[in-house]
Automatic annotation (TrEMBL):
<keyword id="KW-0812">Transmembrane</keyword>
<dbReference type="Pfam" id="PF13520">
    <property type="entry name" value="AA_permease_2"/>
</dbReference>
<dbReference type="GO" id="GO:0005886">
    <property type="term" value="C:plasma membrane"/>
</dbReference>
<dbReference type="InterPro" id="IPR002293">
    <property type="entry name" value="AA/rel_permease1"/>
</dbReference>
<feature type="transmembrane region" description="Helical">
    <location>
        <begin position="99"/>
        <end position="120"/>
    </location>
</feature>
<feature type="transmembrane region" description="Helical">
    <location>
        <begin position="71"/>
        <end position="93"/>
    </location>
</feature>
<feature type="transmembrane region" description="Helical">
    <location>
        <begin position="216"/>
        <end position="238"/>
    </location>
</feature>
<keyword id="KW-1133">Transmembrane helix</keyword>
<feature type="transmembrane region" description="Helical">
    <location>
        <begin position="185"/>
        <end position="209"/>
    </location>
</feature>
<feature type="transmembrane region" description="Helical">
    <location>
        <begin position="141"/>
        <end position="165"/>
    </location>
</feature>
<feature type="transmembrane region" description="Helical">
    <location>
        <begin position="289"/>
        <end position="313"/>
    </location>
</feature>
<feature type="transmembrane region" description="Helical">
    <location>
        <begin position="350"/>
        <end position="377"/>
    </location>
</feature>
<keyword id="KW-0472">Membrane</keyword>
<protein>
    <submittedName>
        <fullName>Cationic amino acid transporter isoform B</fullName>
    </submittedName>
</protein>
<feature type="transmembrane region" description="Helical">
    <location>
        <begin position="258"/>
        <end position="277"/>
    </location>
</feature>
<comment type="similarity">
    <text>Belongs to the amino acid-polyamine-organocation (APC) superfamily. Cationic amino acid transporter (CAT) (TC 2.A.3.3) family.</text>
</comment>
<dbReference type="GO" id="GO:0015171">
    <property type="term" value="F:amino acid transmembrane transporter activity"/>
</dbReference>
Length: 383
């Protein structure tokens, strides 16, 4: 008896819903019309340092446990990774002995970038790096683009899945070579699935999750050990050094020298890592010194490592009877190829372990930086 009136009462609903659609369209059109005005008034609206400090305080106080050495090693762990083993060979085949100038050019550019980052870190000693610096100096719209780039980097890396996959895959390649196997030995069949790369990511993720102090202790220890092992590799190479191997110096030409500098600049990526730990530093005033310091040391280490490589074997004779090493092998890991050609093949295991240690150090520091940056970006998510 009562169902019929209910259905009759519900009948006018469709016209009301239909009437709401034009109203919604009008609201959207009005909002779109106001967009230029909103952009003009809000696009370059900046946040003050006090706003950032209050926002960080609302998100919780981080434990200040990073010393100056920890900050320096945080940057060094990323700036000096396995790139010296992966990129130097290809760049040397391209530029010849002029790769030394390529490293100087790349290092000078990296030092200029480090100086800018150090100045920002001095003025704004809070976590967030580029995003925080941009929103407090240029405004919200430029910061949005920086945030987009950061999120794209985070999305492409997933903080340990895809971006770290290249590094962790390098670890598995070095491990396979250490075992006397081809680089793709640990891949599953003909696919690119690599359980060793996945496993090292899981282990390091668990390590970073243990806490800041524990992660910093591990990063500092690994970085110092890696620098020591790099020094030993360098000295071993210099024992077979022949200055005549540097001639002709510009075998690749000036253009290739500059092109190689562009490639080698990527070996310095990560030198700004101390900035992401600003709120965890015992003394934030030490951030500029840590950033400039790790960039400067990285330049020196890379140049001397390249010099020891070039003086072991003439790069112009790679793939010839004088230096019977295939260009592909030299490009994949120039140091093991050069050590073998120079009669120091018994050092190859040590070289590979050094390269593996560089990948592990880079993974730990990269994951720590990603986790710190993500924690900062969470402050600005819509509520």
């Amino acid at each position: 008896m009562h169902e019929a009136p209910d259905k009759a009462a519900a009948a006018p609903a469709p016209p009301a819903a239909a009437a709401a659609l034009p109203r919604r369209l009008q609201e959207w059109a009005g909002a779109l019309a106001r967009l230029p005005q909103l952009l003009a008034t809000m696009a370059f609206r900046r946040r003050s340092l006090q706003d950032e400090l209050e926002e960080a305080a609302l998100g919780g106080t981080l434990r200040r446990s990073l010393s100056a050495l920890d900050l320096w090693c945080l940057g060094m762990g990323q700036a000096i990774a396995s790139g010296i083993f992966n990129l130097t060979g290809g760049a040397a085949l391209q530029a010849g002995s002029a790769i030394l100038l390529s490293y100087l050019l790349a290092g000078a550019t990296a030092l200029c970038c480090a100086a800018v980052m150090a100045e920002f870190a001095r003025e704004l000693p809070i976590s967030g790096a580029g995003f925080t610096w941009t929103i407090t100096t240029l405004g919200e719209l430029p910061a949005m683009f920086v945030l987009g780039n950061t999120l794209a980097a985070q999305a492409s890396a997933l903080c340990s899945v895809l971006g770290n996959a290249a590094v962790s895959r390098g670890f598995s390649y070095f491990l396979a070579q250490l075992c006397g196997r081809p680089p793709t030995f640990f891949n599953v069949g003909s696919t690119s699935v690599n359980p060793v790369a996945f496993g090292i990511n899981v282990v390091i993720t668990c390590l970073v999750a243990t806490g800041v102090r524990e992660s910093a202790f591990f990063i500092t220890g690994l970085t110092l050990l890696h620098l020591l092992m790099l020094s030993i590799v360098m000295i071993a190479g210099f024992t077979q050094a022949d200055p005549s191997n540097l001639q002709p110096f510009f075998s690749g030409g000036a253009d290739n020298c500059i092109d190689a500098a562009g490639i080698l600049f990527f070996t310095f990526i990560g030198m700004e890592a101390p900035a992401v730990g600003a709120e965890e530093a015992r003394n934030p005033a030490q951030l500029p010194a840590a950033i400039i310091g790790n960039a400067s040391v990285a330049v020196v280490v890379y140049i001397f490592m390249a010099l020891s490589l070039l003086m072991m074997v003439p790069v112009t004779q790679v793939g010839t009877p004088a230096v019977p090493v295939s260009p592909a092998a030299y490009r994949a890991n120039a140091f093991t190829a050069a050590f073998s050609a120079a009669g120091l093949g018994h050092w190859n295991s040590f070289v590979l372990v050094t390269a593996m240690l560089g990948t592990v150090t880079s993974l730990v520091t990269l994951m720590y930086s990603c986790s710190s940056a993500t924690a900062v970006l969470r402050q600005y998510q819509p509520r």
